[in-house]
Amino acid sequence: MATALPRRIKFAFIVQALVASLVLAMGVAAVELGVHRALVGDRLEDEAAATWAQLARDPDAHLPHNSRMRTVFVPAGGDPARVPESLRGYTPGTHVPIWGGPAVLVDRRSQGTLFLEFDPSLSDRAILWTGGLSLLLALLVTYLSAWLTYRISKRMVTPVSWLANVVAHWDPRAPNAAALAPGNLPLDSGTEVRRLAHALRGLAARVADAVERERLFTRDASHELRTPLTVIRFAADILAGDPELPTRSHRAVGRIQRAGHDMQAVIDAFMILARDIEMDAESERFDLHEVVDPEVESVRPLLEGKAVELVVTDRGPPPVDAPRRVLTLMVGHLLTNAVRFTERGRVEVVLDRDRIEIHDTGVGMSEETLAKAFDPFYRADRDSGDGMGIGLAVVRRLGERMGWPVELHSRPGEGTVATIRLRG
After folding, report:
1. What is the per-residue pLDDT for 389?
2. Which one, 36, 75, 153, 293, has the greatest CB density within 10 A?
3. CB contact at 8 A, 302 and 334
């Protein structure tokens, strides 16, 4: 990325030089041909005028004939056989070839027909050398000016390229504003580059402050919520274990337990996201069953009273190097949703080589619901009272952080397939 702009500039100058070379070559060739035709044509016309004047003075005069010029005159009514065979096919007028070969002039008058054949090879070589040297000089000047212009342009663009390279290597969560300090800028940096670097330093500082405030708020809020939530869950567990608790109250306590479980998972997710810079350092190598099997057992109580089969299918997944807690939260959220919205049929967790799939035969989702499923606080069934509408949003955010895309495929009445694609 850092060299993209200089490379494009170099390519532009190379193309410009090639186009200029082609235009110059074509222009010089056109001029040479024009000069060639003009010079040879004028020479033939001058020779023809001089020959007619000589014949007017002395009809028997000796006509010019040498290694470069041959003159043939056939008087009116004369024998056409006197015309050499090489000249017989020419019509009256001046015939100058594009390049090479003799030039011929045929001038027919009342006195007779005059044939002039001229070998222009000497003038052709002179024109060729003159044009070639002119073209060479023009190309040298063009290439030199293009090279000098490129060097100046590259020198002007280098600070911008350097700036782009520094910004490209920034960590979006912790941009290194110190790299753009005035003392680190290239010596050729102009006013515009220095202003841009100053603006980027300010932006980086504001981004770092905002990220830090969000992290601290999430961490502190999670810690503050954890203590009362622990009390609520502990009290709910005690109530659930009371054999004298009425049936109606037992159902209410069950909802409190489920809500506490969901809230605990959300708080844990927020804690992980608040420490996302340290997340990679928590990676470890583990088998997927070590994550999936405990989550499967933790949701089995939610299936009490439902005709739902919960199974795990192993397709030979390899061990994973990742933060175990992140994958646990993601699988737990998706599995809880599958169990909660499935009243009969089957919930299956498939462990494949590059993914985890959770199939259910629950209520499914319409296209409209599916399009908003990952939106924070969105709930398709607001009357159910279960969940807070942020579980899937947290799952997607965790997946994006880890490079594990999360996908949902669903049809109303047929169920849902949730997929976590694991990175290699």
Report:
1. 47
2. 36
3. no
Distance in angstroms (rounded) separating the CA atoms of residues 247 and 243? 10
- Residues near 408 by beta carbon (within 8 Å), at least 6 away in sequence: 365, 370, 373, 374, 392, 416, 417, 418, 419
Residue 361: count of CB within 10 angstroms of its CB: 19
pLDDT tens profile 168-207: 777 766 777 777 787 777 777 778 878 888 888 888 888 8
Helix (H, G, I), strand (E, B) or coil at 346: strand
Q: How many CB atoms lie within 10 A of CB 207?
A: 16
Position 312: which residue type?
Answer: V
Is the pLDDT at 304 greater than 50, yes or no?
Answer: yes
Fold for domain 282-424? Heat Shock Protein 90 (3.30.565)
**In the chain, domain spans:** 4-140, 171-278, 282-424
Cα–Cα distance, 253 to 205 (Å, whole number): 48
Question: Would you say 217 and 185 are in contact if contact means Cβ atoms under 8 Å apart?
Answer: no
Report the C-alpha gap between 32 and 142 in whole angstroms. Answer: 20
Please state at what angle helix 247-274 crosses helix 391-402, rounded to 10 degrees: 30
Any bridge partners for residue 321, and if so which?
285
Q: Output the CA angle 82-85-90, nearest 5 degrees.
A: 100
DSSP state of 375: S
Most confident of 2-6, 78-82, 370-374: 370-374
User: What is the chain's mean pLDDT, rounded?
Assistant: 82
> Quick check: 115 and 83 in contact, CB under 8 A?
yes
d(CA 272, CA 265): 11
The DSSP secondary structure of 97-163, one letter per residue, reads -SSSS-EEEEEEETTEEEEEEE--HHHHHHHHHHHHHHHHHHHHHHHHHHHHHHHHHHHHHHHHHHH
Report DSSP state, residue 328. H
CB atoms within 10 A of CB 56: 10
pTM, two decimal places: 0.49
Which backbone phi and psi does 369 adopt, to 5 degrees?
-65, -40
Rg of the chain, C-alpha, whole Å: 46
Check whether domain 171-278 has CATH 1.10.10, yes or no = no
State how far the Cα of 115 lies from the Cα of 103, in Å rounded to an integer. 11
φ, ψ at 116 (rounded to 5°): -120, 125
Q: Report the C-alpha gap between 90 and 419 in whole angstroms.
A: 87
Question: Span 111-124, mean pLDDT?
Answer: 86
**Separation between Cα atoms, residue 119 and residue 68, nearest integer Å:** 5
